[in-house]
């Protein structure tokens, strides 16, 4: 913008001198144009706001050009050229939101001149002398130079913007490659962590089994329950390790694996029919372990206490989005068709269910009848 103001101030000063040397040409519009450039330089120096200066210069130029059309009795061979220069300047500095209205305004003034003033001005014009033609040629050359200068600035800024965009895109591409590489390394590292955690949990379960072998049947049951709870967590890490994407955990596969593991440890005459319906698309990693321990405890209770006298055992597990409260909450509905005995659920198991519900910032209701048990949990999907 600074360069443009200096350029046009020099250009308008030259045009003013050219027109002052010829009595048939008015230097008044050019003199005002020089003053406009000086005002623009002062405002730019004070505000450092090139768009404000561009708007001021565009509006003042419109006033100068329109005044020349309306008040100077001449054929205005050159005035439309300066009109085009101002339109190009406005588009270049301020964009189309200013450029289009400025173009419309200029042409409305031009049309008014052609309809109402053009014929009268032609009649009043005297014959051109050789000096007049020379002045015309000089001013046309200066106006052409102004147009060429603006177009050259446009080409330069466009080329600079394109090279800047290419450079920025290259930087973004390099950063994306680096991030992708880091993500891949993180994925491998997390898989390794899950694998090692699973192995460590398996070692713990092996130690507990060895210890339980030295216990009588009454006390070894507690060890088996502890083993089952640790196994529930070990299966999680195994599924995480096997998963194609650590951000997508397949709950349905996990629940099937968990039931299969528990059935190996409890003598159930008939394998329960397992009905699993998972509608939660994105289960957060922070919620998976407490949810797994909660479901593990519910399954343990059913397998140990519900199906002794049931010919067709059935367990239903449903996970769905909470339609009433969509702020990352979901519903877990667990039910079986076992015949429960009063007081058969161990207090420790109840405490675990309560603790896991609280960890998931949830509440639950329990309905126990002669035909089975139904839990309804309202839980948070913790991020």
Return the structural class.
Answer: alpha+beta
In DSSP terms, counting alpha (H) and pi (I) runs of 4 or more, how many helices?
Answer: 10
Uncertain residue ranges:
none
The end-to-end distance, rounded to whole angstroms, is 51 Å
Order of helices and strands: HHHHHHHHEHEEHEE
Strand element count: 5
- Biggest beta sheet summary: 5 strands, mixed
Rg calculated over all Cα atoms? 43 Å
Summarize the amount of helix as a percent range.
55-70%
Strand content: 5-15%
Helices, strands, pairings?
Blueprint: H1 2-20, H2 28-47, H3 50-71, H4 79-94, H5 96-124, H6 130-213, H7 217-242, H8 251-265, E1 273-278, H9 285-305, E2 314-321, E3 329-336, H10 347-359, E4 363-369, E5 372-380
Parallel strand pairs: 1-2
Antiparallel strand pairs: 2-3, 3-5, 4-5
Helix pairs in contact: 1-2, 1-6, 2-3, 3-4, 3-5, 4-5, 4-6, 6-7, 7-8, 7-9, 8-9, 9-10
Task: Summarize this structure as a short list of keywords or feature phrases.
single chain, alpha+beta, five-stranded mixed β-sheet, rod-shaped, 383 residues, 69% helix, 10 helices
Give a quick summary of the entry.
With 383 residues, the chain is of the alpha+beta class.
Describe the structure.
- By secondary structure, the protein is α+β, with helices and mostly antiparallel strands.
- Helices cover 69% and strands 10% of the residues.
- A 5-stranded mixed beta sheet has the order 1-2-3-5-4, covered by helices on one side.
- Helix 1 (2-20) packs antiparallel against helix 6 and helix 2 runs antiparallel to helix 3.
- The chain is rod-shaped, with a radius of gyration of 43 Å.
- The chain starts with a helix and ends with a strand.
- The mean pLDDT is 79.
């Amino acid at each position: 913008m600074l360069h443009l103001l200096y350029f046009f101030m020099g250009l308008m000063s030259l045009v003013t001198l050219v027109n002052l040397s010829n009595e048939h040409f008015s230097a008044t519009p050019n003199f005002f144009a020089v003053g406009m450039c000086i005002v623009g330089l002062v405002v730019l120096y004070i505000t450092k706001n090139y768009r404000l200066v561009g708007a001021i210069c565009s509006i003042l130029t419109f006033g100068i050009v329109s005044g020349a059309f309306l008040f100077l009795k001449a054929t205005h061979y050159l005035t439309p050229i300066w009109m085009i220069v101002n339109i190009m300047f406005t588009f270049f500095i301020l964009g189309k939101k200013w450029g289009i209205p400025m173009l419309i305004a200029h042409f409305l003034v031009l049309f008014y001149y052609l309809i109402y003033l053009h014929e009268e001005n032609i009649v009043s014009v005297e014959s051109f002398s050789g000096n007049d033609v020379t002045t015309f040629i000089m001013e046309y050359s200066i106006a052409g130079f102004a147009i060429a200068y603006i177009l050259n600035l446009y080409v330069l800024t466009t080329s600079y913007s394109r090279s800047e965009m290419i450079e920025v895109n290259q930087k973004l591409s390099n950063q994306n490659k680096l991030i992708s590489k880091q993500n891949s390394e993180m994925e491998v590292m997390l898989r390794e962590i899950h694998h090692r955690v699973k192995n460590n949990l398996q070692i713990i379960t092996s130690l507990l089994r060895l210890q339980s072998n030295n216990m009588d049947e009454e006390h070894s049951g507690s060890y088996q329950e502890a083993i089952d709870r640790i196994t529930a967590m070990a299966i999680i890490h195994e599924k995480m390790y096997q998963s194609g994407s650590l951000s997508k955990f397949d709950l349905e596969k996990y629940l099937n694996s968990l039931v299969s593991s528990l059935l190996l440890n409890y003598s159930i005459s008939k394998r329960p029919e397992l009905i699993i319906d998972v509608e939660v698309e994105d289960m957060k990693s922070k919620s998976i372990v407490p949810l797994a321990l909660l479901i593990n405890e519910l399954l343990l209770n059913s397998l140990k206490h519900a199906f002794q006298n049931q010919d067709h055992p059935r367990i239903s597990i449903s996970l769905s989005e909470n339609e009433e409260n969509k702020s990352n909450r979901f519903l877990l509905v667990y039910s079986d068709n076992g015949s429960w005995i009063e007081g058969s659920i161990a207090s420790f198991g109840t405490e675990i269910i309560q603790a896991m519900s609280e960890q998931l910032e949830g509440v639950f209701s329990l309905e126990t009848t002669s035909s089975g048990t139904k839990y309804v949990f309202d839980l948070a999907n913790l991020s």
